[in-house]
């Protein structure tokens, strides 16, 4: 009851509208999160393609197979969505109109990468997952070039 009263009090007070330049106004950007997520998409895709359904009608074997398959799919889709979110933050919050002169294909690169994220969620296609990782690598290079650095592209797998 006290919590409700305090909540009602705070909700009735006037508040200021605040704005930030991005989702997190810290100014810290790095494509590494997108790379890690895209690598997970590729890893899960490879694992899914390597799976072989059990032979016969053993319910335990099928339950184990279905459980593993669905877990791999869930992780693949979550990581594809995370890749997309990380890329969209870079695209919409970090890169500015002045970057277009250095990277005239910036918008098309990000748009295609976001489309690949969606394709990786919908399909189990190793080529699409590899293309996604290549797109993230291209964005990595654009990002670090825009900062005047040449950080090496290093994958975890």
Defining traits:
single chain; 157 residues; mainly alpha; Four Helix Bundle (Hemerythrin (Met), subunit A); 6 helices; 69% helix
List the helices and strands and how they pair.
Blueprint: H1 2-12, H2 32-50, H3 59-94, H4 99-102, H5 106-122, H6 126-146
Helix pairs in contact: 2-3, 2-6, 3-5, 5-6
What portion of the residues fall into strands of 2 or more residues?
under 5%
Poorly predicted runs: none
In which range does the helix fraction lie? 55-70%
| CATH architectural name | Up-down Bundle
Order of helices and strands: HHHHHH
Helix tally equals: 6
Q: Characterize the overall form.
A: flat
Fourth CATH level, the homologous superfamily: Nickel-containing superoxide dismutase
What is the straight-line distance between the termini? 53 Å
Radius of gyration, rounded?
A: 21 Å
CATH topology: Four Helix Bundle (Hemerythrin (Met), subunit A)
Could you name the CATH class?
Mainly Alpha
Number of domains: 1
Mean pLDDT: 90
* Helix vs. strand class: mainly alpha
The biggest beta sheet reads: none
List how many beta strands DSSP finds.
Answer: 0
Structure description:
The chain is built from 6 helices and no strands. It is an all-alpha fold. The protein has one domain (29-146): Four Helix Bundle (Hemerythrin (Met), subunit A) (Up-down Bundle), CATH 1.20.120. Helix 2 (32-50) runs antiparallel to helix 3, helix 2 packs antiparallel against helix 6 and helix 5 (106-122) runs antiparallel to helix 6 (126-146). The longest helix is centred in the middle third of the chain and has 36 residues, at 59-94. The radius of gyration is 21 Å and the shape is flat.
């Amino acid at each position: 009851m006290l919590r409700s009263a305090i909540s009602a009090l705070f909700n009735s007070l006037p508040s200021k509208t605040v704005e930030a330049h991005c989702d997190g106004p810290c100014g810290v950007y790095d494509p590494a999160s997108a790379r890690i997520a895209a690598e997970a998409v590729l890893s899960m895709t490879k694992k899914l393609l390597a799976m072989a359904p059990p032979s016969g009608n053993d319910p335990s074997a099928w339950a184990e197979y279905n459980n593993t398959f669905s877990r791999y799919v869930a992780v693949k889709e979550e990581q594809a969505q995370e890749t997309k979110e990380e890329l969209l933050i870079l695209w919409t919050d970090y890169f500015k109109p002045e970057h277009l002169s250095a990277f005239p294909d910036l918008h098309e690169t990000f748009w295609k990468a976001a489309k690949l994220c969606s394709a990786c969620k919908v399909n189990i296609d190793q080529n699409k997952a590899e293309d996604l990782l290549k797109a993230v690598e291209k964005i990595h290079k654009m990002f670090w070039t825009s900062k005047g650095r040449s950080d090496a592209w290093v994958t975890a797998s």
